[in-house]
Amino acid sequence: MKKIALIAAAVSMTVAAAAQADTITANCTSVLTWGTPVNVSVDGGANYSSAAATLINWTKTSSTGAMGNAINTNFSSYCIQLSEDVYVPSTNNNYTVTQDLSHAPLPGQGMGVVAADHLQALFALQGAAALITSDTTMAAAFQLAIWEIVGDSDLTLTTGLFQANGASGIMSLAQSYLNSISNIAFGTYNNSNLVALTSPVPGLNGSIQDQITLLPGLPGDGSPVPLPASSIAGMGLLLLSGARRLRKA
Question: Contact 151/82 with Cβ under 8 angstroms?
């Protein structure tokens, strides 16, 4: 009887922990634009692919936990994972909401604490505006800055493992964002409203690309810009069954 009681207690604790998990299910509805593609490399410039660097819009359909419930019904995000896909439009994309940016994106070992700290600084300076912008150059530049932070360590778009090229306005603005955080001391910013949306397993529409967004509570972090329905692709634009996607490298 003791063993049964212990097993029952363990199951109860597991169920309780699962019930408290911060999750969302969301439909990916649109992107800001397809008109500002850039070329990106994740192997030090050896190979480049066309990428849609832009703002992504979502509609949350269900959620659990305090952070999951805090995300607005309509919200926007940026990609933190070039190796996975997201279709637009698509439905029933399942994510875990986490404040621990260092272990995102998933699957994998995560970006680490230095990159997570750089993202904290980037979003503290520009994130609220970037999440509601209708400026396609700003959105593309902000996305490039995020990819550089997550995929490299030198905060320079033309050197290192992650490299990019594109319109001069996008490139110069993205590099200015990176320059603005390069001398900020580690730990200066620690915004608990900044969260990653992670998905370690394939979803209903294929592998789901991890995202980053701000929870409500800061100016400009709430509603997405009204956009035409389309679809997003990161490492290459691919037409597939009427939807574009981010193709794995």
Answer: yes
- What's the Cα-to-Cα distance from 120 to each of 5, 79, 86, 136, 243, rounded to whole Å? 45, 15, 24, 22, 32
For residue range 173-227, list pLDDT tens digits in order.
Answer: 999 999 999 999 999 999 999 999 999 765 554 468 999 999 997 444 434 433 3
Length of the chain, in residues = 249
Of the candidates 123, 96, 115, the one whose C-alpha atom is nearest the C-alpha of residue 194 is: 123
The C-alpha angle with vertex 78 and arms to 90 and 51, in degrees rounded to 5, equals 80
Q: Dig out the tokens for 41 from the structure.
A: 């490399």
DSSP string, 126-137: IIHHHTT---HH
pTM: 0.82
Closest CA to 196 of 103, 63, 85, 87: 103
136-151 helix and 168-181 helix, angle to the nearest 10 degrees:
50
Helix (H, G, I), strand (E, B) or coil at 230: coil
Residue 240 vs residues 34, 113, 231, 245: alpha-carbon distances, Å: 16, 36, 10, 8
pLDDT tens-digit map of 10-61: 434 444 444 568 999 999 999 999 888 899 999 999 999 999 999 999 999 9
Bridge partners, residue 237, by sequence? 246
> In this structure, are strands 243-246 and 163-165 parallel, antiparallel, or unpaired?
unpaired
